[in-house]
Amino acid sequence: MVIWLLIPALTLAFNFGNPKEKPSMEEALRIVSEIKDDVSTDITEKNFDELIRNSKDPWFVYFYHPESVKCTFYSPQWKFFSEEVKEKGYKLNTGKVNMEKNMRLVVRLEVQNYPAFLYFVDGQYYNYTGPNDDMTLPSVHLEKLYLQYDHKPIPFRAPKEKPILDKVKDFVLGNTVYVAIGGAVVLFVAVFGLLKAFRKNKPKTE
């Protein structure tokens, strides 16, 4: 049930197995990636507020990048932890975020590395950076270990980006004075140049 039992087994196969039969790293990744997490909830930009921000119960969420080897090896561990949470009836929800598909949420919560673990409770979220093995994760909730880590209020949804035409319109309307001044300067320079040229070419009178 513990993914860390699988990883040493693969390591032994790499180092001490028959060179002709030991699996490649690609094969090891394939084996691990086939362990799908169908237990923890998929958290997205669209359902985050409904599920987590407005929740009365705590959430423990795992942020991962699908192309990270470290995340690929770790993800089954999160599945097993989520199974334990449900089997033992902890008053805790577990979720996971695909960082590649939910960049706005990643930016909103200021997640800067992966894998990352955020604990959400009472309108706050804690950036848990401690041990993430199967022996410690339950204690993060049961013994409130998350309180030892940095926390922030859960931010409101980031405003949607305006279409480019709206941005241009706002820029033009907001800079009308500068446009007018710029036009006046150009007109003054043009008139000054014409007067200078006229005086230079004006015939002299006796």
Automatic annotation (TrEMBL):
GO terms for cellular component: endoplasmic reticulum lumen. GO terms for biological process: response to endoplasmic reticulum stress. GO terms for molecular function: protein-disulfide reductase activity. The keyword Lipid biosynthesis does not apply. Keywords: Membrane, Transmembrane, Transmembrane helix. The keyword Membrane applies. Residues 42-135 form the Thioredoxin domain. The chain crosses the membrane at residues 177-198. It holds the Pfam family Thioredoxin. This is Thioredoxin domain-containing protein. It comes from Blepharisma stoltei.
